[in-house]
Amino acid sequence: MSLNSFGHLFRFTTWGESHGPAIGAVVDGCPPGIALSEADLQPWLDKRRPGTSRFTTQRREPDQVCILSGVFEGRTTGTPISLMIENADQRSKDYSDVAKAYRPGHADYAYDAKYGFRDYRGGGRSSARETASRVAAGGVARLVIPSVRIRGWVEAIGGDGIDYAAFDDAAIDANPFFCPDPAAALRWEAAVDAARKAGSSLGAVIACEAVGVPAGWGAPLYAKLDAELAHACMGINAVKGVEIGDGFAAAALTGEANADAMRPGDADGPQFLANHAGGIAGGIATGQPIRVRVAFKPTSSILTPVETITRDGAATDLATKGRHDPCVGIRGVPVVEAMVALVLADQFLLHRGQCG
Amino acid sequence: MSLNSFGHLFRFTTWGESHGPAIGAVVDGCPPGIALSEADLQPWLDKRRPGTSRFTTQRREPDQVCILSGVFEGRTTGTPISLMIENADQRSKDYSDVAKAYRPGHADYAYDAKYGFRDYRGGGRSSARETASRVAAGGVARLVIPSVRIRGWVEAIGGDGIDYAAFDDAAIDANPFFCPDPAAALRWEAAVDAARKAGSSLGAVIACEAVGVPAGWGAPLYAKLDAELAHACMGINAVKGVEIGDGFAAAALTGEANADAMRPGDADGPQFLANHAGGIAGGIATGQPIRVRVAFKPTSSILTPVETITRDGAATDLATKGRHDPCVGIRGVPVVEAMVALVLADQFLLHRGQCG
Amino acid sequence: MSLNSFGHLFRFTTWGESHGPAIGAVVDGCPPGIALSEADLQPWLDKRRPGTSRFTTQRREPDQVCILSGVFEGRTTGTPISLMIENADQRSKDYSDVAKAYRPGHADYAYDAKYGFRDYRGGGRSSARETASRVAAGGVARLVIPSVRIRGWVEAIGGDGIDYAAFDDAAIDANPFFCPDPAAALRWEAAVDAARKAGSSLGAVIACEAVGVPAGWGAPLYAKLDAELAHACMGINAVKGVEIGDGFAAAALTGEANADAMRPGDADGPQFLANHAGGIAGGIATGQPIRVRVAFKPTSSILTPVETITRDGAATDLATKGRHDPCVGIRGVPVVEAMVALVLADQFLLHRGQCG
Amino acid sequence: MSLNSFGHLFRFTTWGESHGPAIGAVVDGCPPGIALSEADLQPWLDKRRPGTSRFTTQRREPDQVCILSGVFEGRTTGTPISLMIENADQRSKDYSDVAKAYRPGHADYAYDAKYGFRDYRGGGRSSARETASRVAAGGVARLVIPSVRIRGWVEAIGGDGIDYAAFDDAAIDANPFFCPDPAAALRWEAAVDAARKAGSSLGAVIACEAVGVPAGWGAPLYAKLDAELAHACMGINAVKGVEIGDGFAAAALTGEANADAMRPGDADGPQFLANHAGGIAGGIATGQPIRVRVAFKPTSSILTPVETITRDGAATDLATKGRHDPCVGIRGVPVVEAMVALVLADQFLLHRGQCG
């Protein structure tokens, strides 16, 4: 995992800034012979694409992915797959505010401290726009592990959570919030509308589940499945927390309450009586569903002016104008799914490499 | 980060099992010329060492670290530092129970599923004993970044948290729980005793702070400081959750409430009015204290029998006898500190390498 | 060094096939603040560009490099630099011969054995066309180490070597062979013409020197400067041998004859009385000029029919038609220079990272 | 490949200095279930062990390897294998000469330039003693690829080469030079004796062949099999050149002369009419024997005084006393074999990981 690459054997490298001509990813180590075309990747990009509802940024990007290499006669060749997405809607706005002052909570100050200067247009490299590259790469990863079903949803917005008793898988794609609880979706509609109108923003919690991961994937001790998932998810823009299985709630349990007892099962493995562990023990998959929860902070790009300083160190107030997500966590769902897919595809190849 | 190595430029590799002759770590990439002897590392190992109170496992290990290479005339040479710790108290107990059946919540079943068989003595490679190697390596890491102060404590045991208004730095090392709140320490004494006597176990939440990290450390986008910390901490035995700054609580905030406003500061950087971000923005340190929270599940090794299966797939009940921590999170404090030190030393070298 | 990436801190990843829409490289880890535009890279690409004389392939490629990311207001930002070169002259020839049979000496059979099938158009990923990406990346590397002067030349073609007594630095760029000995250049003109007309091909030896590398660069023991150079050069298409300093000739010397004696020098280091070592001792630069020699085999693409087999295992004869270099080693000069630059830029950052 | 680690999936890390208490290697990524004990590794170490004839250094080292982890009940567990070899014969000689002045041709000056100081006892980390760790690790690698037969020999000493017409496989282990030509062995005996008595040293060329490598191993483009072998061999102490197949001789051939024509074969692959390529095309094994040649310079440790400088920059003459190999290349045979085994084991796992 070196700077802008992620993964060991199934490895991707991303490049590109919010307002450059394009962004992209190079996917390396993909097994040969897998059927792949742009049509296989576009649905995931469409899911993440901005401008599809009033609850996401109004930047209009077609996000058409283009495969530049690594595929021949419709199948992967085993050589690097170069994916490119053009930046279409780079609004020629005036960035002088952001160029001169640091948006609180943004990476502006940190990038300047690190590199001495920064591409301030739309956040440059630190923009969440880069996650489109991850989603495209994640689309390839899904094809490497076709028997694994990866599914994410929003569990809470602004502290208002869903009722798991009302969980309806079919509802997830039927509202603009990837919300499995239709009643919660209605409440969120009001809340996000209110935040948007108030020039504010809201945080969110995303849950993601991977079903069909065979027992044995995972590479202890320093490429553990749970550690890799934590790295992958914590590295997503705006993420501040990651849990596997019961997560922080497990810290309040007793050993008996937290035990995932086992009974004789079938060819697919033992029968587990619970899944507090979220499908991972000792950094290795147990065969149960992998469960991850991810906390997204509210985006720092708000219309409400906040105290800050200029590049020269002078005091100022800054309101972040422009087009922004009132709740960036919503579009985090396809990104979390993609990162989970990328980790699992990598772990599949690592396991096959070492253990045959 | 390949299987049993961690880090990019400051990189360590660990080896060893719970009941083999020894465990150890090879620390590679350490800058030359740093004064180093076993006496610099031993205090951290002593902090993690078992058998020092009735609240930890009664396994007696002196945990004497030995430096086998990489130091000449008292200073690091820039070549690999080999650290070895002998396993002294490998009790010749009968492991036939564990050899034949899977302890629920343990890595037993997953290791068998992955590798076809396992070293079942004391958990083998999956034992928390391996974390002694991390602590030793972390001691070297601290010397690489001497101006950074890393400090961890227990924040909650079994769901019972400290009162931050009563936070007393001096108290942390004055009780067997690394507890900064003396009143909480008294309550925990009763709770852990009760759990121990009941053959049960308790989870815990650890907090860790690193003060003095310069703005600019961190390597976006796939070696982000927060992602590396998440990887480092989630990879510790029994950890199920990691938060940076406000973590999951941030997901319930509005953008205004979560903003870390800035005012003109001094030569050390701007004055921040809050630290919701935990000292990291865009994966790069802001100069504020780095704040991490880590959730440890209750250890699965409990005397209460739990339903499980044998290697042959038959139903059985298993009680984990032997010497175990009633609350493994307590000894997690020096381990979390070590991992934070290891990540920061690595990020320091990465930053110096790329940015001079 | 993972599959299609090279380097540790200054790291590049290439993608693309001979007859896809484009090829490219992502350069990661470049220090920020370096002035960079396409005009800085194009001269090196022009040096490697085919079709500039009758002694290279007649494929016409403008090889215009485009920078898609990582540069803002004319300077590198420290984020990945995406370089793309369009494939302009993909002649729509009939590849049915190559699709069905294996060209002896080519990678055709090996790719099929590895991946199950291959992109046979122009050699696909195994084509020397990919080296354009290396040359572009190498152009960035040169800017990272501006005080190092890297210079390559052809030392022999078809076994006919230059007279080092006649070495004329100015001559190197004054003939189509990068030949520092004008008399040899005249002989090579006749020899390469003859080979071209006979449908044959010739091998070549390239020499490359890097002056100005400070003593201390190099990362023993498994990222030694000489080992990295050997990896970098042996990985170039058609290369079969690499020497550092006296190379194989050193194996015939005595210890006294091979000694590089030292005398007191100046601020730049000691005065060396010889440079048998080629500027590297123990994997670390000594401050003397780095010297590498690289052997290129004659290209296997010849018009003379050779016995081979079809994909189905049947016997056949194959003559490789199309546009090919009669001496592929000639255009190897800018490629070797690029690889040397890429290794040195990486070693510079590694050294700065570990040793400050 | 980071500093002191080598390999991707089958990866080893070495540590230790010539005069420290021990040296060792951690082998990571080894498949589980392989029968392994010290007795499997010792024969390779014995082959490299010093002091077995008057033609090698008289340092007496038993070189007993000890397995500290990663093996349970006689089989590898898939976890790191820690190998340790004690340094037994660290003669307490006076190193003040070497501490104060730089031995020409040695790494002394370069290490000081890099790290600011060095462990001067016996060359410290730069000593060829470290290669014992590689040989031990290589012994594990051989067990991972049991169907591959790796065999090295000395091809020339001091410029005097063997007669391949007289090649006798059985002779290789029947003389102290790993010489397949008994007549040459007799000549070398005289030559090495003369060099030893004269306080001089001789270079050597080693050849190594790996038979049974399946077509398809190799990971283009930046983990090519030939590039990895070049890295592995050029990184051995005293090596200055590496060739694959015909190497530099190929540069003097025409395309027709260099072609490895193919005819229909059997289940094991096609019949090749020649092996100029040394079993590798496009960085991938063709199924033919892999052939590598490696040039060792004469050791710089000679009794003849050579001009040099002190650490303070003053002129002096230095004769390297102590126990040294008159021809270090001889003991290079088991080291080259080990490095070839390590590369091939790694490529086997990489291939299985990506291509199944």
Summarize the structure.
The structure is a homotetramer of 356-residue chains. With 356 residues, chain A is an alpha+beta fold.
Residue share in β-strands of chain A = 15-25%
The greatest inter-chain interface is formed by:
A-B, 116 and 116 residues
The fourth-level CATH homologous superfamily of chain A is Chorismate synthase AroC
Query: Structural class, from helix and strand content of chain A?
Result: alpha+beta
State the helix count of chain A. 8
CATH architecture of chain A: 4-Layer Sandwich
The main sheet of chain A comes to:
5 strands, antiparallel
- The strand order across the widest sheet of chain A is 1-2-3-7-4
- Please report the total strand number of chain A as a whole number: 18
The oligomeric status of these chains comes to homotetramer
Radius of gyration of chain A from CA coordinates: 21 Å
Order of helices and strands of chain A: EEEHEEEEHHHEEHEHEHEEEEEEEH
Instruction: Give the termini distance of chain A in whole angstroms.
Output: 23 Å
Give an overview in words.
Chains A, B, C, D: Homotetramer. The structure is a homotetramer of 356-residue chains. Chain A is 26% helix and 23% strand. The first copy, chain A, is α+β, with helices and mostly antiparallel strands. The first copy, chain A, has one domain: Chorismate synthase AroC (Chorismate synthase, AroC fold), CATH 3.60.150.10. In chain A, the strands form 6 sheets. In chain A, strands 1-2-3-7-4 form a 5-stranded antiparallel beta sheet, with helices on one face. The first copy, chain A, has a 5-stranded antiparallel beta sheet with strand order 9-8-10-16-11. In chain A, strands 5-6 form a two-stranded antiparallel sheet. In chain A, helix 4 crosses helix 8 and helix 6 packs antiparallel against helix 8. The longest helix of chain A has 24 residues. Chain A is globular. Chains in contact: A-B, A-C, A-D, B-C, B-D, C-D. Chains A and B meet through strand 1, helix 3, helix 6, strand 11 and helix 7 of A and strand 1, helix 3, helix 6, strand 11 and helix 7 of B. Strand 11 of chain C pairs antiparallel with strand 11 of chain D, so a sheet runs across the interface.
